Amino acid sequence: MEIEILYSEFGNLNGDIGNIEYLKKCLPEAKIVETAINDEPLFVTKDDISLIYMGTLSERAQEIVIQKLMPYKNRIKDLIEKGQVFLFTGNSVEVLGKYIENEDGSKIEALDIFDIYSKRNMLNRHNSMFLGKYEDIELVGFKSQFTMLYGDNTKNYFSEVEMGIGMNEQTKLEGIKQNNFIATYMIGPLLILNPLFTIKLMQRMQIQNPTLAYEKELIEAYNERLKKFKQLSKNK
Asked: Which strands make up the sheet holding 86-89, listed edge to edge?
């Protein structure tokens, strides 16, 4: 079992790297491959990677990552179609859109894998708590972002929003899910905050009878947080 982390020297904002640290606890037998920015990604030559992960990026890092991944655009498309498991958190999904638009209207061309685009507003950071539903489980989390995502994700959204925003402030559909590719703007240790989702993710990774590290404690914390978030949602 191999898990590839793309560009962890960049994609480690907001505590996102905690997702991988937690998976190491859950899957001590897994080989963690950290692909640095000047390395050829493992996914270029391997088809049996259990998970490809990338976390939140700075704006400058996004532009560098786009340049580095552009030669592998068709390979990434092919892997998504074949059902490769991906998890992209925070703004990392933006590198797979059509473009990223700056405040002055200039555009940074991205990989154009998904029919979406993002707009930056560096003077207006959006911060919010998030409560939503993915399949039959509820998700809790946090968002902190200078960008909003636009396009039609009605057929490939990740979760439905109960409290907070979707991929922008005008929609209640959050993130992208296509086959086994999952992207969400939720930041921080998503997998620690959402143990039931983590189990589903490991099932997608073809792990039989997945078990969680610190399962009892995490589920207790999740249930308490979910209760508080639901109360906040009712009061809004």
From this structure: 31-35, 2-6, 51-54, 86-89, 181-184, 176-178
> Contact at 8 Å (CB) between 156 and 174?
no
Going by C-beta distance under 8 Å and a sequence separation of 6 or more, which residues neighbour residue 162? 131, 132, 133, 138, 230, 233
- Here the CATH number for the domain that contains residue 159 is 3.40.50.880
Nearest to 190 by CA among 200, 204, 178, 180: 200
111's enclosing H/E stretch is: none
Q: What is the full per-residue pLDDT of the chain (236 aa) written as tens digits?
A: 899 999 988 767 677 888 989 999 999 999 999 999 999 999 999 988 999 999 999 999 999 999 999 999 999 999 999 999 999 999 999 999 999 999 999 999 999 999 999 999 988 889 999 999 999 999 999 999 999 999 999 999 999 999 999 999 999 999 999 999 999 999 989 999 999 999 999 999 999 899 999 999 999 999 999 999 999 888 76
Contact 53, 33 (CB under 8 A): no
How far is residue 233's CA from residue 205's CA, in Å, rounded to a whole number?
Answer: 32
The total number of structural domains that make up the chain: 1
Q: Which of 84, 83, 81 has its CA nearest to residue 113?
A: 81
> CA-CA distance, 121 to 130, in Å (whole number)?
20
Instruction: Check: pTM over 0.90? Answer yes or no.
Output: yes
Domain range enclosing 197? 2-235
CB neighbours of residue 137 within 10 Å: 15
